[in-house]
Structures are given as structure tokens and as C-alpha cells.
């Protein structure tokens, strides 16, 4: 690959852009994984609540891998966050369905983000290798001209 200085500068600029994209997508994937873990934990707690009988004791997650034992009452509703700091009271069955749909949505977004991350990493790796090869070629040519 024999490229002009201007083309090399453009390739380096594109590399920097790919680096920024990889970093942003990595953060997005991490946030989506955490969100999916939270939704799955809530879903499991709601299922345990749904299947429990009045008077049963279940463990309810409160965050940071911490659970509290709670006795189940006849009230079969849950307060569910639906976004933008808005929560609504739903029947426990509807809450489970909502969490499962939410998990499916997050899983799809996670899949797409992971694919985009892999594509950006591959493009960055390929471009980086080409730029490094051009530098090596230039060093070799400079050594030969001395």
C-alpha cells in the first residue's frame, strides 16, 4: 500500500473516529447488560411472587445483590417503572408480561449493539493494520534511501 501523506492523515482521522465509536458502543453494551440483568432479576422476583401463596415468604431483590425476606399478602399487584421516572401499579401477571417484553427489547438492542461493536472493532483493526504497514513501508524506504 503506497499512499500519499494526505491519505494517510485521513486514514488516521478515520481510525480515531472508529476508536471513539468502539468506546461509545462498549459503554452502550455495558449499560444494556446491566439493564438486562436488572430486568431479569425483577422478572424472577415477580414470578416468585406470582407463584407464592398468601403467607409464604419470598426473597425480594433490593439491589447490589441484596435480598430481603417478605411475607406474601393477598394483594397481587406490583408497582412497575415504565420509563421517565414514571411507575404504575399493575397486576402481578401483567407485571411479569411487561418485564418479559422489556427483557426481549433490551436483548434485541444488546444484540444489535454488540454486532455494531464487533463491526467497528474489525474495521478499526483492519485500518490500524494498514496504517501500521504503511509506516513500516515508509521506514523501510527511508532506510533504503540512506
Protein described:
- The structure is a single chain.
- The chain is α+β, with helices and mostly antiparallel strands.
- It has a domain at 5-45 and 79-133: Helix Hairpins (Orthogonal Bundle).
- The protein is 69% helix and 18% strand.
- The chain has 2 helices and 4 strands, in the order αββββα.
- It has helices spanning 5-51, 92-145; strands at residues 57-63, 66-71, 77-83, 86-91.
- The strands form 2 sheets. Strands 1-2 form a two-stranded antiparallel sheet.
- A hairpin with a 2-residue loop joins strand 1 (57-63) and strand 2 (66-71).
- Helix 1 (5-51) packs antiparallel against helix 2 (92-145).
- The radius of gyration is 26 Å and the shape is rod-shaped.
Descriptors:
alpha+beta; Helix Hairpins; two-stranded antiparallel sheet; rod-shaped
Amino acid at each position: 500500500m503506497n499512499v500519499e501523506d494526505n491519505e494517510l492523515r485521513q486514514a488516521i482521522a478515520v481510525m480515531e473516529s472508529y476508536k471513539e465509536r468502539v468506546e461509545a458502543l462498549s459503554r452502550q453494551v455495558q449499560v444494556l447488560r446491566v439493564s438486562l440483568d436488572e430486568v431479569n432479576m425483577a422478572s424472577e422476583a415477580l414470578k416468585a411472587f406470582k407463584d407464592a401463596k398468601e403467607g409464604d415468604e419470598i426473597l425480594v431483590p433490593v439491589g447490589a445483590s441484596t435480598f430481603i425476606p417478605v411475607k406474601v399478602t393477598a394483594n397481587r399487584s406490583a408497582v412497575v417503572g415504565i420509563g421517565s421516572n414514571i411507575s404504575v401499579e399493575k397486576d402481578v401477571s401483567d407485571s411479569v408480561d411487561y418485564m418479559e417484553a422489556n427483557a426481549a427489547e433490551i436483548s434485541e438492542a444488546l444484540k444489535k449493539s454488540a454486532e455494531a461493536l464487533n463491526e467497528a472493532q474489525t474495521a478499526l483493526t483492519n485500518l490500524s493494520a494498514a496504517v501500521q504497514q504503511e509506516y513500516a513501508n515508509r521506514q523501510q524506504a527511508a532506510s533504503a534511501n540512506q
